[in-house]
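Revision sheet: C-alpha cells.
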Amino acid sequence: MNDAQRRVVVVVVTGAGTGIGRATARAFSVDGAHVLAVGRRAAPLAETAAGHPLITPLTADVTAPDAPDRVVGAALHRYGRLDVLVNNAGIAGGGPLAELDEAAARRQLDTNLLAPVRLARATVAALADTRGVIVNVTTSVGQRAWPGSSVYAAGKAALDSLTRSWAVELAPRGIRVVAVAPGAIDTPIGAHQGLSPEQRAAVRRWQLAHTPLGRIGGPQDVAWAIRQLCDPAAGFVTGVVLPVDGGAVVG
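Predicted:
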C-alpha cells in the first residue's frame, strides 16, 4: 500500500501487551499506522512497543468506568483523529455450570462484552469523522458448543451479534464494523487462566484434534486478518464475522 492509498492512520488496540493484541499493534505499526497500545500492565506494553516507534503504550483497565474517555481522549490528544478501534482485550475461564462462580462470570462479561460496548460507544464520533472501522475480536467457539466455558463462549457470541447490529446501525455514518473469530491460537491465555502445564497440554491436544488444518495458529495469523479487514480495499465489507481457526468451525 502506498502513502496515497493509506487511510488507516491511528489505531487503538486493547489487550495489546501479549498475544493477538501485540501482534496486531505491531502489524499496523509496520504498515505505517500510529498505534495506541492499551493494556493493564506497563511492562508487557513496553515490550510490545520496543523497536516500534509508532506504538505508544497506554496503561489502562478497559473495565474501569473512566477507561473509554481516557483511551479515546489519549488518541485524540496525541494524534487528533482515530481510524480503527480493535476490541481485543479478553479473559477466559470457566467450569461446569453447577460450579460456576458468579463473580468470575461477571468479570468475564465485563471485560469481554461490556468493555467493548463502552469503548465502541465512546469512539463513534471520532470514527464517523474518519469513516473508520471497529474490529471485535471474538472466538470461533462462540459459533459452537463449549461445555465448561459456556460464559466465555456466550459473551463472545454476543459480541458477534453486536458486530452485525452495529454494522447496520453505523453504516449511515460511514463506520464499518467487523469481527475476527480466532480458533486455537498460541497465546498466553491458558497461563493467564491459571491452568497448569499439564492442563494446557490437554487443551492443546483437544484443539489439534478438532482443527482440520492440524496445527495451532499464531497471533500473526489473526493480526493479518484484522489488518486486511481494515484496509481501504475492504471498504465494502461490514458486518462479517471472519473465522481464523484452521477450519474448526466447519470441521
